[in-house]
Amino acid sequence: MRFLATFQLLDFIDTLASLTAAFVFGTLIGAERQYRLRTAGLRTNVLVAVGAAAFVDLAMHLAGADGGVRVIAYVVSGIGFLGAGVIMKDGMNVRGLNTAATLWGSAAVGCCAGADMIAQAATLTVFVLAGNTLLRPLVNAINRTPLDERKSEGTCEFVVTVDADAAASLRDVIVEKLEAASYPVGDVELIVRSENTVEILVTLVSTSVEAADLDAVAVDLARRPGVQHATWDVSTKD
Predict the structure, then answer these.
(1) Which stretches of the chain are DSSP H helices?
(2) Residue 204: band (very low, low, confident or very high) from pLDDT cuts 50, 70, 90
């Protein structure tokens, strides 16, 4: 049997150590994800870490460091496809980006373990866990901070609800008012809401905004005949 001719006890122990390290570190990362009920939980992160370690370890034994480097490059691109599977778009919201990034981190941990860099794999595990746990209070604090439109560049949308028969003329008026206030218009869309109501959605060129200026434009437009409602909103999701 070829197995008996090629089996080397020290090589097997080396592989076992690499896979065990990847399993342990993947478990630590996955346990945190499982606790927070993420899409990619304990088993997924463990399998990613162990799988990456197995491929890199195999390449190292067959072709040395050069083979390991080539396989790592394929692991990096392959995990990109796996991460894309956990990213979901729901309207304007995108979910799963952090989970995909965590899978990428688990793969990196596995690659380090497979390359016999177990200390580096342990260090990387600590950083991945820190990113998912220690930074959460900071993220929550930032999210609770009110948005200052003057300091944020984002996509600003001006929404004006008008009578259907006045939509064409009011469209030009809205553009002129915004241009006069030094807010260039990027796109204008007319959305029919009912037989008598049309919504004019004006998207401004991405820039910082002054709330008082846009409020003044909205108030002026709301007073015009045929205008039912005028408002604006700024989004920094992009």
Answers:
(1) 2-6, 9-35, 42-84, 97-114, 118-133, 136-144, 167-180, 211-222
(2) confident
Residue 237 predicted with pLDDT over 60: no
Which CATH architecture best describes the domain 149-235? Answer: 2-Layer Sandwich (3.30)
In tens, the pLDDT along 175-193 reads 888 888 888 888 888 888 8
Domains of the chain: which residue ranges? 2-144, 149-235
Give yes or no for a contact between 68 and 59, defined as CB atoms under 8 angstroms apart: yes
Output the CA–CA distances (angstroms, integers) from residue 168 to 171, 185, 188, 191, 230, in the order listed: 5, 16, 11, 12, 16
The residue count of the chain comes to 238
Cα angle, residue 55 at apex, residues 20 and 116 outer, rounded to 5°: 50
What mean pLDDT is predicted for residues 127-152?
Answer: 77
SS3 204: strand
Task: Kindly report the pTM of this predicted structure.
Answer: 0.62
Buried b (16+ CB within 10 A) or exposed e, 112-133: bbbbbbbeebbebbeebbeebe
Three-state secondary structure of 88-128: EEECCEEECHHHHHHHHHHHHHHHHHHCCCHHHHHHHHHHH
Task: Judge whether 92 and 50 are in contact, CB under 8 Å.
Answer: no
pLDDT value at residue 141: 82
